[in-house]
Amino acid sequence: MKGIILAGGLGTRLYPITLGISKHLLPIYNKPMIYYPLVTLMQAGIRDIALITTPEDYPLFNKILGDGQQWGINIQYLIQPNPEGIAQAFIIAKDFLQNDKCCLILGDNIFFGEGLEQQMIQAQEAPGATIFAYHVSDPERYGVIFLDDNKVPLYIKEKPANPNSSLAITGLYFYDNDVISFAENLKPSARGELEITDINNIYLKAKRLNVNIFGRGIAWLDTGTHQSLLEASQFVHALETRQGVKICAPEETAWQKGWITDDQLIQQSKYFDKSDYGPYLRSLIKQDR
């Protein structure tokens, strides 16, 4: 299983704050936004990751993340010259994926909660494709899945004007290797994009689509607007302050999984000594002992 983080685009919904920087590098409270989807893949045990970004933003991502070796993972960078839809990610990453399954996560999505890791592991083992749905108050902003009375998926519609379903498809997707050929044979939608909804509907029609609905124990935040960006920072701040933990710190996840040693964690923590991030990383070892 390989991972893809889609972190391209222009971030026009967040103008003017994204005029000079990728939205995926904006802060969510005390960490860059890109840390959150990266750690989600790490929590799923995925260590081979491709980050898709723009030619202009690539140097900054590389400066912040490097090749991932410091966290026991491998990060490769792929370029998306023009944003032409989420499904374009599979075409860009074709050589990276080769014959492997993949997990695609959108670079502006945050997932957190009890049981998330187990659900992602199950999705890796399931045949076909697995997507995750979440009840929202504004489904018209998303791809929406419609279920029958027995909760069997009927169809998915992208940004419906008058949806009678509140189940939005989140930006976390698991696919077998057929997704590459499906993406290559897609036709652009009316808005000129290769739609991820079309990919999901192909799997659905072939009865190869698994739909998991996130319950109340898992939070999903889409940080694509000014309001949701603020709400995400407030959410992370509240949890970290109340619980005394850091959400989505890659060093912590790598250490917990045994991908880096105690000594490596201590060494990396020294880089952050002038903030509370460094002392927090060292405190993990003390708590463990």
From TrEMBL:
<comment type="pathway">
    <text>Carbohydrate biosynthesis; dTDP-L-rhamnose biosynthesis.</text>
</comment>
<protein>
    <recommendedName>
        <fullName>Glucose-1-phosphate thymidylyltransferase</fullName>
        <ecNumber>2.7.7.24</ecNumber>
    </recommendedName>
</protein>
<dbReference type="GO" id="GO:0008879">
    <property type="term" value="F:glucose-1-phosphate thymidylyltransferase activity"/>
</dbReference>
<dbReference type="InterPro" id="IPR005835">
    <property type="entry name" value="NTP_transferase_dom"/>
</dbReference>
<dbReference type="InterPro" id="IPR029044">
    <property type="entry name" value="Nucleotide-diphossugar_trans"/>
</dbReference>
<dbReference type="GO" id="GO:0046872">
    <property type="term" value="F:metal ion binding"/>
</dbReference>
<feature type="domain" description="Nucleotidyl transferase">
    <location>
        <begin position="2"/>
        <end position="237"/>
    </location>
</feature>
<dbReference type="Pfam" id="PF00483">
    <property type="entry name" value="NTP_transferase"/>
</dbReference>
<keyword id="KW-0479">Metal-binding</keyword>
<keyword id="KW-0548">Nucleotidyltransferase</keyword>
<comment type="function">
    <text>Catalyzes the formation of dTDP-glucose, from dTTP and glucose 1-phosphate, as well as its pyrophosphorolysis.</text>
</comment>
<comment type="pathway">
    <text>Bacterial outer membrane biogenesis; LPS O-antigen biosynthesis.</text>
</comment>
<keyword id="KW-0460">Magnesium</keyword>
<dbReference type="InterPro" id="IPR005907">
    <property type="entry name" value="G1P_thy_trans_s"/>
</dbReference>
<comment type="similarity">
    <text>Belongs to the glucose-1-phosphate thymidylyltransferase family.</text>
</comment>
<keyword id="KW-0808">Transferase</keyword>
